[in-house]
Write a structure and sequence with these properties.
CATH class of the largest domain: Alpha Beta
Helix content: 25-40%
Strand content: 25-35%
Distance between the termini: 57 Å
Protein name: Ribosomal protein L11 methyltransferase
Oligomer: single chain
Low-confidence stretches: 38-51
Structural class: alpha/beta
Largest sheet: 8 strands, mixed
Number of strands: 15
CATH architecture of the largest domain: 3-Layer(aba) Sandwich
Subcellular location: Cytoplasm
Radius of gyration: 23 Å
GO molecular function, one term: protein-lysine N-methyltransferase activity
Shape: elongated
EC number: 2.1.1.-
Number of helices: 9
InterPro entries: Ribosomal_L11_MeTrfase_PrmA, Ribosomal_PrmA_MeTrfase, SAM-dependent_MTases_sf
């Protein structure tokens, strides 16, 4: 069915209140969008971080009386008569099919491909990880995941043990196993991530070489030849005393989920333990690597 959306420009402070007003007047969903397309990073637990200039977008069924909705909203104390808004009609689409059509196999480094199950594998002789987007973060489309995959592809992982700290979908651990690692260990705080990693490992035939732990259940004596952590700058700094102990002597460390502007502070948390490489950047995100 077709849809109508009403977009109201407001401030972050007023967005939640206007969201409630849209829902009270028949919106089936409401989303917030930064007017200037500026992303917000690292909200506090349970916090909905909003922008200084925010578009509040209400989605309505096409048969809604738009004039009546606008009239009702005009009586809201934050809006008033003649408030700035935009009305748009959305064409009806098979959104799932359109989304699937735009998801293609992606190559990382020299050998590695990440392939959705509904697409043919481009190179049967390459290292192919079959992975469909799901409940947990990590498909290769985000620059931080791409940076980590490229780094893993460039390492000699043959016979090595790899820890994926904050494993999400399991994409990094599974890629490491397919690239020759003998064993991988995935750690995450989210039970859905553990389940997603387990399912993806089974799909790729590596479940017997992947151990998965919720963070509070991991063994105390974990150690690996390679440790990769694609999370966020804040947790990477806070968890540096723990993460730094995971690579064995001469072990490799790869960190991502970091904005380029945050790299210096994260580097400082690891510089005493690791010999760090030059920072790699991709679309304002970066990767920090080093050797213990």
């Amino acid at each position: 069915m077709p849809w109508i959306q009403i977009k109201i420009n407001t401030t972050g402070a007023d967005a939640e209140c206007l969201s409630d007003a849209l829902m009270e007047n028949g919106a089936v969903s409401v989303t917030f969008q930064d007017t200037h397309d500026n992303p917000v990073f690292e909200p506090l637990p349970g916090e909905t971080r909003l922008w200084g200039d925010t578009d509040v977008i209400g989605l309505f069924e096409a048969d809604i009386d738009v004039a009546a909705v606008i009239e009702a909203l005009s009586g809201h104390p934050l809006l008033g008569k003649g408030f700035h808004h935009k009305i748009e009609q959305l064409e009806d689409k098979d959104w799932e099919r359109e989304w699937m059509d735009n998801f293609h196999p992606m190559r990382f480094g020299e050998r590695l491909w990440i392939c959705p199950s509904w697409r043919p594998v481009p190179d049967a002789d390459a290292v192919n990880v079959m992975l469909d987007p799901g409940l947990a973060f990590g498909t290769g489309t985000h620059p931080t995941t791409a940076l980590c995959l490229q780094w893993l592809d460039g390492l000699d992982l043959e016979g090595k043990t790899v820890i994926d700290f904050g494993c999400g979908s399991g994409i990094l651990a599974i890629a490491a196993l397919k690239l020759g690692a003998a064993r991988a260990i995935g750690i995450d705080i989210d039970p859905q991530a553990i389940q997603a990693s387990r399912d993806n490992a089974q799909r790729n035939g590596v479940e017997d070489r992947l151990d998965l732990y919720l963070s509070h259940e991991k063994p105390d004596d974990l150690s690996a030849d390679v440790v990769v952590a694609n999370i966020l700058a804040g947790p990477l700094r806070e968890l540096a005393p723990l993460i730094s102990t995971l690579p064995g002597p001469g072990g490799f460390l790869g960190l991502s989920g970091i904005l380029a502007s945050q790299a210096e502070n994260v580097e400082a948390a690891y510089a005493d333990t690791f010999s760090l490489d030059p920072v790699a950047e991709k679309e304002e995100w970066c990767r920090i690597t080093g050797r213990r």
